Amino acid sequence: MALPVSAQQAPLRVAAAPVPGELEIAKMVWSTMAAVDHANRSGNYSVLRDLAAPGFQMSNDPARLTQIFASLRSSDVDLSNTMLLAPTYRGAPRMVQADLLQVQGSFGLRPTAIGFDLLYQYVQGRWRLFGVSIGPMQIATQQPGGPAQPPPPQRPPRKR
Question: Which of 21, 28, 41, 79 has its C-alpha lying 20 to 30 A from 88's C-alpha?
Answer without folding.
Answer: 41
